[in-house]
From TrEMBL:
Matching Pfam families: MFS_1
Lineage, broadest ranks: Bacteria, Pseudomonadati, Pseudomonadota, Gammaproteobacteria, Cellvibrionales
Mode of membrane association: Multi-pass membrane protein
Domain spans labelled Major facilitator superfamily (MFS) profile: 1-399
Species in which this protein is naturally found: Candidatus Seongchinamella marina
Top-level lineage group: Bacteria
InterPro entries associated with the record: MFS, MFS_dom, MFS_spinster-like, MFS_trans_sf
Keywords for this protein: Membrane, Transmembrane, Transmembrane helix, Transport
Main location: membrane
Name of protein: MFS transporter
Transmembrane segments: 34-57, 124-145, 151-173, 206-222, 242-264, 276-296, 302-323, 335-355, 375-394
Localisation per UniProt entry: Membrane
Amino acid sequence: MLTLVYAFNFVDRQILVILQEPIKNDMGLSDTQLGLLSGFSFALVYITAGIPIAYWADRTNRRNIITASLAVWSGMTALSGLAQNYSQLLLARIGVGIGEAGGSPPAHSMISDYYPPERRATAMAIYTTGLHLGILMGFIVGGLISEFFGWRIAFFSVGIPGVLLAVVFYFTVKEPPRGQWDESVNMAHKPSLGETLKHLSSVRSFWYLALAAGATSFAGYGNGNFAPSFLIRNHGFSVGEVGVVLAIFGGGGGMIGTFLGGYLTDRLGVRDRRWYVWLPALAGIIALPMGFPYLLLDNTTVVIGLMFFVTLFLNTYMGPVVATCHALVPSSMRAMASAILFFVLNMIGLGLGPLTVGVLSDLYMPHFGNDGLRYAMLTVGLLSSIGIVLFYLAGRHLEADVKKAQAVGQGDS
């Protein structure tokens, strides 16, 4: 159920991505405005609201928070279909961002209470496959409905079912006992935001990890949000065709990569915990050279094949990152730690990624025409490769920082 809710999270978030070309033509928008709409403005409220909601989630019923959040973001998605201008659409998307801020931090905390440490990366990876399931659903539903019925109906078609799912979620999901897999933990003590930040300030691997995830998602969100426009402008796809292709090769590749990232690190991590950061770094090294032919070649068949593998490798990081994040803090800080992790990740990735691609595309357009977008995406891909180095640096401090977290947890008991 948590995975299904996360899928609806990304259906409602990514539906705008597949619809942005029809919306751009209808409202006369620039690529910079599209980047603001699908990236920075959404991310700003998403990450800002995430901190207080996570603080609440560490203290109250997490299932109820997720239920209310799902109803809010789904309702605001449906309202997006009524927007008559850019400002109204922007306000509706801000509402979606506020609602979605209450999705992942409480869910991450619940999963860490459902599963013991040696199974968490796999569990988190399965949960995170909901991201790509949502992208798959959003691209297919959004692309096909937009092509036949218009982009406004597409917003209604994914928003209204989410409100109904919120009711089902409330009556079928139980709140797990907090800290049931953690020995000698005092769950009566609820750390403040200041206490959590004070603990994390000395955990160097957490910050390297958060920045590495942010750098990786910088290309993931930046290039992913403009992938439909890239295929439409540079390869002659229709909106419906883009929806199907990106759902299968983008969403499918992302789901496989996300699951493998968690599954493999849980098994390799038994021998050496540093595999939780080494594997995402290795995947980034493999994906980097594939990005050049993916963005520069004109052979559509080869481009689509490379897109599948680039997406697969670049999505191995989320399960290991969240599981490692939770190993670096006591159980009473997990929702807040997830919110801080997502603050960094989404500010860099979701906030700056699409905006950077949009700005660079507009700057390159006078010189390269429609190829300006492909060079903008290539630039962002190269910049994001710093994540490989940051994952390596996180591994250098990981063992000592996990022991520090265990000591803090026992000290609170």
